[in-house]
Design a protein that fits this description.
By secondary structure, this protein is α+β, with helices and mostly antiparallel strands. It has 2 domains: about 260 residues, no CATH class; about 160 residues, Immunoglobulin-like (Sandwich). It contains 17 helices and 23 strands. The strands form 9 sheets. Strands 17, 18, 19, 20, 22 and 23 form a 6-stranded antiparallel sheet that branches. It is globular and about 80 Å long. The N and C termini lie far apart (about 80 Å). The N terminus is likely disordered. Bound molecules: heme C (HEC) (5 copies). The site of one heme C has 26 residues, from helix 11, helix 12, helix 13 and helix 14. The site of one heme C has 23 residues, from helix 4, helix 5 and helix 11.
Length: about 425
């Protein structure tokens, strides 16, 4: 009974609770790890755990780690600053709970190293926008007003009426629920363990819209003001009013899917594009048209600047040997129209790395919903089949060569579409 009174008190203060040696210690919501949520939201936890959100820090994402260590420093040190002496902006998006505390030692608290975890997204209360005025950007969680209560889409949690009419239901979960509900202002018991009170507010205008994503996914500039990603601007250009969640959080088995696939997810990549190859003989030649259509209201590829797609087209003889190809080395070198990428250049207009870029180079990615046709003429002699393939890459070819320390699955191309013409 005493414990319950204490619990109520702390819950009223808006903090979650931890039990250490029987004593209740208030814990801010943003230190609550996904392990707490996992006890009841198992399916969502599994989806999230496999996502890049759960693997977004320099300890969990080897590509991010490579750049972070290079541009900022040691993710295991406290007090790390950028060369300009500032708090590393990366953490506002990649380790938001650490950013909330102004900390840089990411392994100091499991809630930091979980990256974009449950409470990171579910504590975003209102979206202020990323434009801070005077040309400055406020990025990641800085673009939001943050709450100390879980922000909910307001579907299953809209149960006040049920509570009124089910006064004997100790868990207040409206009856019929298998799990006790810790979101109603009191701690609950589950399998003999106490789950702290996890207060919740219904906030569908925020949680069920793209605003929930845009603080981190709109745009980000390097220190020279060059945009390194601008999914948000691309989206505005598309004039689409279908929000991000429609594709990135479909409802599966009755719950919003938290897998949120992108460039690391081959199934998502295969949905991204329509690809078709048509060919005709004319005299001694074959005329080929490759059609590539972006199905998204953002560029293809979008996101990090080194994402790219290249196309290979190969003509085969009746033995299955290649007798013609659109590229001998790499399309980036010898068939530029077949290389879809975002270019970053230095003062002299030469390709350079994201931190050093002074200007945008050529952007050959597909614009939102763009359909593009690429034409080829090749000698018809001996050709029985032409096959085209689209390959997605997380990194530019130059970085693939340079970053030999990365696991193969991050540097190898992913086949995302193929098309064939028999002649
Ligand atoms: C002891 C079990 C339990 C734990 C632990 C728990 N929840 Fe819940 N949660 C529930 C129940 C019960 C509901 C209401 C019905 C449902 O969704 O099954 C709910 C609903 C929600 C909703 C959706 C409400 C809606 O309107 O659809 C969100 C969001 C949520 N929880 C987030 C979290 C987060 C984040 C954590 C971890 C910090 C967490 N929960 C931990 C039991 C739990
Ligand atoms: C607090 C910042 C933050 C918020 C809010 C956020 N994200 Fe992310 N998201 C990230 C970061 C950081 C990564 C990349 C992690 C990495 O690759 O290291 C990411 C990765 C992704 C990816 C996968 C990219 C890939 O490389 O595979 C998708 C898709 C995505 N987010 C969609 C969303 C959607 C949809 C929302 C809104 C419901 C959202 N995100 C909200 C920070 C955020
Ligand atoms: C990248 C941001 C993001 C992260 C990370 C995230 N959520 Fe969510 N969550 C959302 C959004 C957005 C919705 C609303 C989807 C909708 O209703 O359209 C949501 C919905 C939910 C719901 C209600 C689902 C339903 O369909 O009723 C629950 C429960 C929930 N989240 C729990 C969690 C838990 C537990 C975690 C961690 C394991 C987590 N979330 C991580 C953004 C996030
Ligand atoms: C019509 C469905 C659709 C909509 C709407 C959509 N996306 Fe995507 N998104 C995709 C597909 C498919 C991919 C994989 C192909 C790619 O990377 O471009 C993707 C990829 C991504 C990636 C991965 C980039 C990377 O580096 O790996 C991010 C981030 C992303 N989307 C964010 C968003 C945001 C933010 C919105 C809302 C403004 C949004 N998406 C709206 C379908 C969609
Ligand atoms: C405004 C939020 C934001 C900031 C600030 C930010 N990032 Fe990211 N970063 C993202 C998101 C979102 C993704 C993944 C989706 C995409 O590609 O857009 C990402 C992806 C990456 C990737 C690719 C990871 C992979 O798995 O392929 C690297 C590398 C990276 N960021 C490095 C950094 C570094 C280093 C900094 C700081 C100098 C930084 N980022 C700052 C949001 C941010």
């Amino acid at each position: 009974m005493k414990v319950i009174t204490k619990l109520r008190l702390f819950a009223a203060l808006g903090g979650a609770l931890l039990f250490a040696g029987g004593a209740a210690i208030a814990q801010p919501l943003h230190h609550t790890t996904s392990d707490t949520c996992k006890q009841c939201h198992q399916e969502i936890y599994k989806q999230w755990q496999g996502s890049m959100h759960a693997n977004s820090t320099a300890f969990t994402d080897p590509i991010h780690a490579t750049f972070y260590k290079n541009v900022v420093g040691d993710p295991g040190q406290e007090g790390v600053t950028t060369k300009a002496g500032k708090y590393p902006v990366c953490l506002q998006c990649h380790a938001p709970n650490a950013a909330r505390d102004g900390k840089t030692k990411i392994d100091a608290n499991p809630a930091y190293n979980e990256g974009v975890n449950c409470v990171a997204c579910h504590s975003l209360k209102t979206f202020k926008g990323i434009e801070a005025g005077n040309g400055k950007l406020r990025l990641g969680i800085q673009a939001y007003e943050l709450a100390d209560a879980i922000q909910s889409p307001g579907r299953k949690s809209v149960n006040g009426l049920e509570k009124l009419t089910a006064s004997n239901d100790l868990f207040g979960s409206g009856g019929g629920e298998q799990k006790p509900n810790p979101h109603q202002g009191e701690a609950v018991e589950l399998d003999g363990k106490t789950i702290p009170s996890l207060p919740m507010e219904s906030n569908p205008l925020m949680v069920r819209t793209s605003k929930n994503c845009m603080g981190c996914h709109d745009k980000r500039n390097n220190s020279h003001g060059v945009p390194l990603c601008n999914t948000g601007d691309e989206y505005k250009m598309s004039s689409s009013s279908v929000d991000c969640l429609a594709c990135h959080m479909p409802i599966n088995d009755g719950v919003a899917d938290h897998s949120m696939g992108g460039g690391h997810d081959s199934a998502m990549l295969q949905r991204a594009v329509l690809f078709d190859l048509k060919g005709e003989r004319g005299g001694d030649n074959i005329q080929l048209i490759a059609t590539i259509k972006n199905l998204q209201p953002h560029s293809l590829p979008t996101g990090a600047p080194f994402r790219n797609i290249y196309m290979t087209v190969k003509a085969y003889d009746s033995e299955g040997s290649v007798i013609w190809s659109n590229t001998e080395s790499h399309p980036a070198q010898d068939d530029k129209q077949a290389y879809l990428a975002y270019g970053l250049v230095d003062d002299e207009g030469k390709p350079t790395s994201p931190p050093k870029a002074k200007a945008l180079g050529p952007d050959s990615r597909l614009k939102p919903f763009e359909e593009r046709s690429l034409n080829y003429t090749l000698p018809a002699k001996g050709v029985v089949l032409v096959r085209g393939e689209l390959h997605y890459n997380l990194l530019w070819p130059g970085l693939v060569k340079q970053f030999t320390h990365l696991p193969k699955d991050l540097t190898a191309p992913t086949l995302i579409a193929a098309s064939e013409v028999a002649l």
